[in-house]
Specification:
By secondary structure, this protein is of the alpha/beta class. It is built from 30 helices and 27 strands. The protein folds into six domains: about 100 residues, 3-Layer(aba) Sandwich (MutS, DNA mismatch repair protein, domain I); about 130 residues, MutS, connector domain (Nucleotidyltransferase, domain 5), CATH 3.30.420; about 160 residues, MutS, DNA mismatch repair protein, Chain A, domain 3 (Orthogonal Bundle), CATH 1.10.1420.10; about 100 residues, MutS, DNA mismatch repair protein, Chain A, domain 3 (Orthogonal Bundle); about 250 residues, Rossmann fold (3-Layer(aba) Sandwich); about 40 residues.
């Protein structure tokens, strides 16, 4: 019979706890260390660079790695940033108070998306946890940031959800186990994911869960009752917070709907192409880095949200512009506001720490000081005569009662750890002051007692001391033994002296020993009471934090306009776009000192100049003009001033960009396939207020293919009923000929000056098409060997002779007129029938096989007709 291996009580306890948290790395508190065992130890040593040892555990060798408990804040962020879920298992009782093994339990489960630790969080970024629920054809999504209390939800198509994931950049995404592969196939594998049991994603459970959390009879008040999938995703997030031992969530007190109808729609390609807050190039500077002049963490986080969700509401946009104009005019006001904002801590995260019971004494004082800095801000923003500014002031609550309470209870120099003492302010608790008096004046008291007893007994060599056996005592040398009063009790006899205790000394000892312990208990108790009392102010502080964040963003926009000469755009609900001397906000800040950015005008409307075809060589600045147009529109609709001499902007509801050939080979798609996917997404979602920016479409395939596709796309955009405003940059100068056939397409080129042996880029947009490409000149500038350049020139001449531009363009125009005849002048009854057939088709539900069958049917009709007519 096999002998069973004996497991130590400690390892038995570890195994029991580890079973409950199999997916987490368990930090197990043993004395002054956090230890990890087995697989966890191997992972921890690799991530943290700490030594991995082994020990014999009942005959089994167990890996072991640990670090001192006071280094938790150093090591925990590293584990979480590496994508680990970390269960912190603490000792739940004082080891001195127990004769058996110390009780232990998990006090917190920290995951990439659930963290309250300042060393893990980034001050100007949210730390979102997201959950996705898969419906039949649409999806529900929710986001929560436990460190700020923000809780949001939405529903939409895969593309809309993908865009939201890109906007919010969650640190962790929760998915039902049965949709594990669906998630990766739809949204890629760039997220830290955690898989939940399927039963959590049930509507009844979700409704009940949210109602219980918000303590409401229904969810109608949140405006989300029409989002059943969003509600399920939101409940999954709350369930996960509870599972990770985060149950104090009073600060998560509302669920906000992310509404597409309120914001400018940008698909994920546009967000990526415009490099708003991420860039695929590590050295690149993003728009956010250029425009972020915020001074508070709350402002920094809100600005990122504004950038992701530009407004479509003219009144709100104008309100922001009015505030900036006022702050620009009143320089002193701006300076005073900025000085006050600088003094504020992260109000949003501080009050969240109050709700979760994680705030420390020093942070509570910081909360009080931050609210004190709100007082002058509120005064400065009242009666300014500008409605948008006054409204901001009205929304701020400096929470006077909360401030005075913290001031009354806590010492201004309160420590980080309440156990360090000196947390509670003198004068707040009579008992505490008395105990402190005792503890600090102990020496004086003993000296006075010694003096008094020496005088009373006449013993000159009296001594008061203490030991561990019987505490405080009075020592008398044998020569003075006869002078000892009868009331003294002998405790110990030594060779040359005797030790006594007195009633007074015993009383004093009990007081002094109990005082320090009592002080500690009392300080903890009073601080805990204060935190509990502060919870009544969660909503008020959150609203004030939100107001300060908005103000911070607007002051930042003012600073930006002041430093970079931005102007107020004129916004209206027309569909026109007139930019005078517009500049690229990012590129102009990157230029070498002394070099000025060359500005350009852009005019787009739906009647005469709907579509601008920009030709010009590579590196001439076509892409910059495209991007700067989108960024100027975007900045104006987030409420900022813009880098231009003047800008008249009719409200835009969608911005689409297709810039360059961004490969997605990792997903198994070719450059050209990606390009076509992105362009199809644009063509299928056009609206009359859309702004479309296309850069080098069709270059991912052969020249003839590319020109044909670019021509067909341009024609589609021109003929589409929406007449979406379009900028199309291309190096196919053959497309210049489109202006002869399509009245609203206009040619422009980015001018260059040809010198004998080089090309000078003037970067100015001028009317008319560009005659030819300058690829070989660009190659020369890049330092291509002379041998290659001269060969390229020879090949080019041959090609130009055999395939003249005129020949290609002639064919394209013939194709266009043929298509126009057959497609737009339908007086043939058969063509009318085919037209009806095509128009009634529901393309969205058509399978590829059905499409082929339908095409075959149309072909048969045409063939039959041809035979009949012949």
């Amino acid at each position: 019979m096999k002998k069973q291996k004996k497991v130590t009580p400690l390892m038995k306890q570890f195994n029991t706890i580890k079973t409950k948290y199999p997916d987490a790395l368990l930090l197990f508190r043993v004395g002054d260390f956090y230890e990890t065992f087995g697989e966890d130890a191997v992972k921890a040593s690799r991530i943290l660079g700490i030594i991995l040892t082994q020990r014999n555990n009942g005959g089994d060798r167990t890996e072991l790695a640990g670090f001192p408990h006071h280094s938790l804040n150093t090591y925990l962020p590293k584990l979480v940033k590496a994508g680990e879920r970390v269960a912190i298992c603490d000792q739940l009782e004082d080891p001195k108070q127990t004769k058996t093994i110390v009780k232990r339990g998990v006090t917190e489960l920290v995951t990439p998306g659930v963290a309250l630790n300042d060393d893990i969080l980034s001050s100007k970024n949210n730390n979102f946890l997201s959950a996705i629920h898969f419906g039949a054809s649409t999806y529900g999504i929710s986001f929560v940031d436990i460190s700020t209390g923000e809780f949001l939800t939405s529903e939409g198509s895969a593309e809309e959800i993908d865009t939201l994931l890109q906007h919010f950049g969650p640190n962790e995404v929760l998915v039902s186990k049965k949709h594990k592969t669906d998630f990766t196939e739809t949204f890629g594998n760039g997220y830290h994911t955690f898989y939940l049991e399927d039963w959590i994603y049930q509507e009844d459970y979700a409704q009940e869960s949210l109602r219980t959390h918000f303590k409401t009879a229904s969810l109608k008040g949140f405006g989300i009752s029409g989002l059943p999938l969003g509600i399920i995703a939101s409940a999954a997030v709350l369930h996960y917070l509870s599972e990770t031992e985060h149950k104090r969530l009073q600060h998560i007190n509302k669920l906000v709907r992310i509404g597409n109808e309120e914001h400018v729609w940008m698909d994920r390609f546009t967000i990526r192409n415009l490099e708003l807050y991420h860039s695929p190039h590590p050295e690149a500077v993003t728009l956010l880095q250029i425009i972020d002049k915020t001074l508070s963490p709350m402002g920094g986080r809100l600005l990122k949200r504004w950038l992701a969700f530009p407004l479509k509401n003219l009144e709100k946009i104008r309100g922001r512009h009015q505030a900036i104009a006022h702050f620009l005019k009143e320089e002193k006001l701006l300076t005073s506001l900025q000085q006050s904002i600088k003094k504020m801590g992260d109000l949003e995260r501080l009050i969240a720490k109050v709700a979760t019971g994680r705030i420390n004494p020093r942070e509570a004082v910081q909360l009080k000081n931050s609210l004190e800095a709100v007082v002058p801000v509120k005064q400065l923003l009242s009666h300014t005569g500008v409605e948008a500014v006054d409204r901001l002031g009205e929304g701020l609550d400096p929470c006077e009662a909360l401030r005075s309470r913290i001031k009354e209870v806590l010492s201004e120099e309160a420590p980080v750890n309440v156990l360090k003492g000196a947390t509670i302010a003198p004068g707040f608790s009579e008992e505490l002051d008395e105990l402190r008096g005792l503890a600090t004046s102990g020496k004086d008291y003993l000296n006075q007692m010694l003096e008094r007893e020496t005088r009373r007994t006449g013993i000159s060599s009296l001594k008061i001391a203490s030991n561990n056996v019987f505490g405080y005592y009075i020592e008398v040398r044998n020569t003075h033994k006869d002078k000892v009063p009868e009331t003294w009790i002998r405790k110990q006899t030594l060779v040359n002296a005797e030790r006594y205790i007195t009633e007074e000394l015993k009383e004093y000892e009990a007081k002094i020993l109990g005082a320090e312990e009592r002080i500690m208990d009392l300080e903890q108790q009073l601080f805990a009471q204060l935190i509990l009392w502060m919870q009544a102010y969660i909503t008020a502080v959150q609203q004030t934090a939100q107001g300060i964040a908005i103000l911070d963003c607007l002051c930042g926009f003012t600073q930006l306009a002041k430093e970079n000469e931005y102007v107020a755009p004129t916004m209206n609900d027309s569909t026109e776009l007139i930019i005078t001397n517009g500049r690229h906000p990012v590129i102009e800040r990157q230029l070498p000192p002394g070099e000025k950015y060359i500005p350009n005008d852009v005019v787009l409307n739906r009647d005469t100049q709907q579509f601008i075809m920009i030709t010009g060589p590579n590196m001439s600045g076509k892409s910059a003009i495209l991007r700067q147009t989108a960024l100027i529109v975007l900045l104006s609709q987030i409420g900022s001033f813009v880098p231009a001499e003047a800008a008249h902007i009719g409200l835009v509801d969608k911005i689409f960009t297709r810039v360059g050939a961004s490969d997605n080979i990792s997903m198994g798609e070719s450059t050209f396939m990606v390009e076509m996917n992105e362009t199809a997404s644009i063509l299928n979602n056009l609206s009359e207020r859309s702004l479309v920016l296309l850069d080098e479409i069709g270059r991912g395939t052969s020249t003839y293919d590319g020109i044909s596709i670019a021509w067909a796309i341009s024609e589609y955009l021109h003929e589409h009923p929406s007449r979406a405003k379009t900028l199309f940059a291309t190096h196919y100068h053959e497309l210049n000929e489109m202006t002869t056939t399509f009245e609203r397409i206009k040619n422009y080129n980015v001018s260059v000056k040809e010198l004998p042996h080089k090309v000078l880029f003037l970067r100015t947009l001028t009317p008319g098409g560009s005659a030819h490409s300058f690829g070989i000149h660009v190659a020369k500038m890049a330092g291509m060997p002379q041998q290659v350049l001269s060969r390229a020139n020879k090949v080019l001449k041959k090609l130009e002779q055999s395939h003249s531009s005129e020949e290609i363009t002639g064919k394209l125009q013939a194709a266009a007129s043929e298509m126009q005849l057959s497609f737009f002048h339908l007086d043939d009854p058969l063509l009318e029938e085919i037209k009806e057939e095509i128009l009634t088709l529901d393309i969205n539900t058509l399978t590829p096989v059905e499409a082929l069958m339908k095409l075959n049917e149309i072909k048969r009709l045409l063939t039959k007709n041809k035979k009949a007519s012949s």
